[in-house]
Design goal:
alpha/beta; five-stranded parallel beta sheet; four-stranded antiparallel beta sheet; globular; RNA-binding
Length: 972
RNA sequence: GCGGGGGUUGCCAAGCCAGGUCAAAGGCGCAGGGCUCAGGACCCUGUCCCGUAGGGGUUCGUGGGUUCAAAUCCCACCCCCCGCACCA
């Protein structure tokens, strides 16, 4: 086969669609509307086939609704807000080799173009153009008149309105907030700013204040409840310490800790420098137990871990236990250390099932630890901490917390010590060390005056739940995750100091952060059309957006104020204002919002929250689809695996429709789907096949001929397929639709052709029947593979565009129980015959089929009815049957069959019973009609008789085995 | 840890909510046959085990239970994946 020119096919139809403006949607009060949105792309890279899945599902949904008569709007914008673009542009301008390689090698951007991308806006514009081209090339039916970016000045104005509204209505709070921070850049760092791209984890480190001579020795710990087991505290003898005034107290901490305090808003004044050894052998007082414990040396203590001083709990901390052993086995030049160390013994404070009173000792033994620098200590510690936390109980040594679980004891100790001023806490990076791309160690910095959106508000949560409860969530399995997210969301920082975006209207130092400026933008699509260049009236506001007052947005989106007043204030004509307001009321709310599943716990939940705050109930979102990802040949797509195929390259390589189907065909919505080349080529072949078959059926609608049972079977199957595809599409079970159209229906058509035989017999209706099948196929394929569908449609000789045609309607008149029953007899018989031939190894010369006798059919029907209406006891049924004199005359066989058929009927699935009750094809005739077919299949003579016939040829007496739907078979 | 999703016959993947046509759709792979000069494509057949008559046996993460009947319902356990934020 000559290589199929996908590009030509795509161009051809895309041009026609553009010409016919099939994607452009304006309000039409005579038709119901359907509003589809998908999460707009972030243009810091080309899109890949993973992105294609979400947008293809959204597109299929939009196209499906168009075909069902909805005035469907599917718009698209671009999200410029945030730091990644900013960080990438910066890296590029610093000629970072890693990013240059990604851009040139994976994204295929010519090296000459890189210079033009060194400014964030221009990088965004570049990828925006690329993404948009890709979306057009793959055939998404987007109304591009409504395109915008979040860096547009009027969009900024819109977001300012949104945030001012939130602030005025009490949804914004202010506070402090810890962030990962690069002291060199003086900026917060995100994943993209960090070497190796790790995510910084910030946690609380508790500082327990041990004391000596009014000087505080704050020890950092994650387990404050172990304070009862403290035998000493550790400092690192090889480290620099300082005595400093921290806030209003005298503290001794490591040199490194000073920086931490400074970043976390503590006042710091260094007084004297000390070495670790200066601190040794002193005594400090445990603030909980008031006992004095010594300061001892340990090499494992890291100076940048909290304060550089830690408590020693040898009974329960493997590091401490090992460090103590190291000390005890060491030889000393003076006697002072020896005396102190000799006296130290572990204290048991936590009882843990399956361990001795000193679990740390058990772990050290189990892990065969050789010294306090042994790397296995980390794992031993992790294991033990987790076990004690979940299963440990405080012992008598931990009064008054005896008997409490470790978990609750910790809470209690924190509360008690903090309230008495004996403990405080600092933030710490839990996965140290983290290095900024500039080479500087990342620290935790506490940002003052941080602005938050208060998702913790109970009233707000209630409304969000209310909204969610009424929404369609696809797949439904996702709903639990939404409920959980709504419950756990708290205050969320909504502004930061760097990156692109909108300035916070009341505090212009801050830029509204990316997940906060993207929650109500679906409303902006309505406005975006009016802001497009040709609407001169808006151009002046683009130059000076501040001139557009809040009252304009209040009117347009909330319906507040009057047209007259807003018109007076803005100078926009009442006609345009009215029209925009009507357009908003017409399209809003969004009927279905599409995204991948990763946005459930953030964006999609915020989306619900904000809509319930800003809008009245009738404008709350109606549905969300959160689909799974795309895997490349079984692997997650990643830059390091170099298995990312940019979307446009993939379209060029596989064709738009094969790619669309390829990302939808192998898994249901909820599952991650796998894409690979074999799949793509298989789909290509299928689609090409459909086009070439359509060619053969061109204009074959001609004369109406009487339909045979087989024809009616095919049309009945088609009707079933339409029904199934329709329900599947309504639930966006796109994989199933692909299956039905591309495989099930195809198989039925193949069976139909096979039954008819290779030669066209005089006047059979196959072309008309197949023509109908193909018409429907083209329509059902249109949302998924629109180019191929339109090509089929045209090739079949239809007028107009299939993307504008109607989705096929199931029609009960085509549902033909008898035809389906007849065909199932033929299939069953074919199978059984084959099975016998296989089991016996016979070569058939002649095959005789015996249809079941009339009396069996009548018993069978009675059994079906009995089982359906009133599943009485089998005995009664048999009695009833045998009360019929005709049947009684048959005797035992009748009773036996009554028993058997009754059992079959009661155990049958309801739908099957339903389909057979009252339906009784003439089996002998069915088999006779199919005998040509059987002859071809088995290359044998075919005879058909009915059990009980007068002139029956039945040398082996097989006819008595005949049953309804199961003719007896005799092979010679 | 908390929350969510999942474990199906060589691989991928339906079925599970509404138990019975389930040895379990479909695709891929593999084997045989047809077509062809040949290969590819395409078509047919087979692909858990046994079987000279349409049958039987053993299967759906593991172990129990409910039922006439369990991949499907209930209980317990094991394993895998994802999210847990200020980042798009």
């Amino acid at each position: 086969m000559a290589k199929f020119n996908w590009r030509a096919l795509e161009r051809k139809w895309q041009k026609k669609w553009a010409w016919a403006k099939v994607d452009e949607t304006d309000p039409d009060p005579r038709r119901p509307k359907y509003f589809v949105t998908a999460a707009y792309p972030y243009p810091n890279s080309p899109q890949h086939i993973g992105h294609a899945r979400t947008y293809t599902i959204a597109d299929a949904n939009a196209r499906f609704h168009r075909m069902r008569g909805f005035n469907t709007l599917y718009p698209m914008g671009f999200h410029y807000t945030g730091t990644p673009l900013y960080a990438m542009a910066k890296r590029l301008s610093q000629n970072d080799p890693e990013i240059i390689e990604t851009f040139t090698k994976i994204y295929g951007i010519p090296a000459a173009k890189l210079d033009g991308l060194k400014e964030p806006r221009r990088m965004a514009d570049y990828f925006r153009d690329d993404i948009k081209k890709g979306m057009i090339e793959i055939g998404f039916s987007v109304d591009w008149r409504r395109e915008f970016t979040t860096a547009d000045r009027l969009y900024n104005r819109f977001i300012q309105w949104h945030f001012r509204w939130l602030n005025q209505h009490g949804f914004i709070t202010k506070g402090t907030h810890p962030v990962a921070w690069c002291p060199n850049d003086k900026n917060p760092v995100g994943v993209v700013d960090i070497q190796g791209g790790v995510e910084p984890e910030i946690g609380d480190s508790h500082l327990v204040k041990f004391e000596s001579d009014r000087t505080t020795y704050p020890t950092s710990t994650l387990r404050p409840e172990t304070i009862f087991g403290v035998t000493n505290i550790w400092v690192n003898p090889n480290t620099r310490y300082v005595k400093a005034q921290i806030d209003s107290e005298e503290w001794v901490v490591s040199r490194e800790a000073i920086e931490t305090f400074e970043h976390q808003n503590h006042s710091v004044r260094i007084e004297t420098e000390l070495s670790g050894t200066d601190l040794l052998w002193k005594e400090v007082v445990n603030p909980m137990t008031n006992t004095a414990v010594p300061v001892l040396p340990a090499d494992f203590v890291e100076p940048d871990n909290g304060t550089g001083i830690v408590m020693s709990v040898p009974g329960h901390a493997p590091y401490d236990y090992q460090a103590l052993i190291d000390l005890k086995t060491r030889s000393w030049t003076s006697s002072q250390p020896e005396d102190i160390i000799r006296k130290i013994e572990p204290i048991s404070i936590i009882k843990l099932e399956g361990f001795s009173e000193f679990p740390a000792a058990d772990m050290v033994k189990k892990f065969e630890i050789s010294g306090q620098k042994d790397p296995r200590l980390a794992q031993a510690t992790k294991d033990l901490y987790s076990k004690e936390y979940h299963n440990g109980v405080m012992t008598d040594n931990a009064k008054p917390y005896t008997g409490l679980s470790v978990e609750s004891a910790r809470q209690a100790v924190i509360k008690d010590l903090t309230s008495s001023g004996k403990m405080t806490s600092i933030y710490e990076l839990l996965n140290r060390p983290i290095t900024c791309r500039c080479g500087t160690r990342v620290v935790v910095h506490v940002v003052d005056n941080q602005w938050f959106i208060n998702y913790g508000d109970e009233e707000w949560k209630k409304k969000a739940h209310q909204c969610l409860d009424k929404m369609t969530i696809l797949p439904e399995e996702r709903r639990g995750e939404f409920n959980y997210t709504i419950d756990w969301l708290r205050e969320r920082a909504c502004a930061r100091k760097v990156g692109l975006g909108t300035r916070l209207p009341w505090d212009m130092d801050w830029t509204i952060e990316a997940l906060s400026d993207s929650v109500v933008y679906m409303a902006y699509y309505v406005l975006a059309k009016y802001l497009a260049k040709e609407w001169v009236i808006f151009k002046k506001f683009e130059k000076d957006p501040q001139k557009l007052p809040d009252s304009f947005f209040d009117y347009l989106f909330l319906g507040q104020g009057s047209t007259e007043a807003v018109s007076r204030e803005t100078g926009i004509s009442k006609r345009i204002l009215d029209s925009a307001r009507r357009e908003f009321s017409y399209f809003y709310p969004v009927d279905m919002r599409h995204s991948a599943k990763d946005l459930v716990s953030n964006h999609l939940s915020f989306y619900i929250f904000h809509h319930t705050a800003l809008f009245t109930q009738d404008q709350w979102p109606r549905g969300i689809v959160a689909n799974g990802f795309v895997l490349m040949a079984g692997d997650k797509m990643s830059k390091s695996l170099e298995n990312i195929i940019p979307l446009r390259q993939a379209v060029a390589k596989f064709g738009a429709d094969p790619l669309r189907i390829g990302t939808l065909a192998t898994a249901e919505l909820n599952q991650d789907t796998d894409f690979n080349e074999t799949l793509a080529t298989t789909i290509q072949d299928r689609l090409i096949g459909l086009i070439s078959q359509s060619r053969k059926l061109r204009r074959k609608m001609a004369a109406k001929r009487a339909y045979s049972t087989l024809d009616r079977w095919m049309l009945s199957r088609l009707n079933t397929a339409i029904q199934a595809a329709t329900t599947a599409m309504e639930r966006l079970r796109v994989r199933e639709v692909v299956n039905i159209v591309l495989y099930h229906l195809e198989n039925d058509a193949a069976w139909y052709q096979r039954r008819l035989g290779p030669k066209k017999t005089k006047g059979d209706a196959r072309n008309q029947v197949l023509r109908q099948v193909f018409d429907s196929k083209a329509r059902m394929l249109a949302p998924l593979a629109p180019h191929v569908a339109d090509e089929m449609w045209f090739t079949l000789g239809n007028k107009g565009l299939v993307v504008r045609a109607e989705w096929p309607k199931p029609d009960d008149r085509f549902h033909d129980k008898t035809a389906e029953a007849s065909e199932s007899i033929v299939k069953q018989t074919l199978e059984d015959t084959g099975e016998i031939l296989k089991a016996t190894g016979l070569t058939a010369k002649s095959i005789t089929y015996y249809a079941a006798g009339q009396w069996k059919l009548s018993i069978y029907q009675k059994a079906l009815t009995a089982a359906q209406s009133d599943p009485k006891r089998q005995g009664e049924f048999i009695k009833e049957i045998m009360s019929d004199p005709k049947l009684r005359a048959i005797g035992k066989p009748a009773a036996d069959y009554a028993a058997k058929s009754y059992q079959q009927a009661t155990q049958m699935k309801e739908e099957l019973r339903e389909s057979r009750v009252g339906v009784q094809p003439n089996e002998k005739k069915v088999l006779e009609d199919a005998s040509d077919f059987f002859r071809r299949e088995f290359r044998a003579e075919i005879h058909v008789s009915q059990e009980g016939e007068k002139e029956i040829r039945d040398p082996k007496g097989r006819s008595r085995f005949a049953e309804p739907y199961r003719p007896a078979i005799f092979i010679e």
